[in-house]
Amino acid sequence: MGLAIGFGEDVGDAQDTYLLYINPYTQLVDRFLYTVMDRGRAEPRLKIVHYKDVEGVKLPIYRSSIDANWEGEIIGESWAEQISEDITFNNRFDKSLFEKPSP
Fold first, then answer.
1. Does residue 70 belong to any structural domain of this protein?
2. What is the pLDDT of residues 20-72, one digit of tens each?
3. What spatial distance separates the first Cα and last Cα of the chain, rounded to whole Å?
4. Which of 10, 76, 95, 100 is most buried (CB neighbours < 10 A)?
5. Residue 72 domain boundaries
6. CA 91, CA 98: separation in Å to the nearest integer?
7. Strand order across the beta sheet in which 80-83 lies
């Protein structure tokens, strides 16, 4: 399932566009297309996300991105990777803040 998101003229500094793909089995956004207008990037990039359960919270620990078109077809030559490691929580937030809301 895809979900398009944008921002109104008076919202934020840049008018980025996102096209989220929600995995029907996990109900997580596991890939999305996006622009970065404050860096002059009007053509989309595709980002693929892998999650890890950290203390009961699903976090996007591995992300890779590449130039793509709005159909999600890869047109770039190389992937950029972002990896998060050694994640811990010590902020005293109540874990219930991260629970999925009831329908």
1. yes
2. 999 999 999 999 999 887 677 778 999 999 999 887 788 999 999 999 999 99
3. 18
4. 76
5. 2-98
6. 13
7. 2-5, 18-22, 29-36, 41-54, 57-67, 80-83
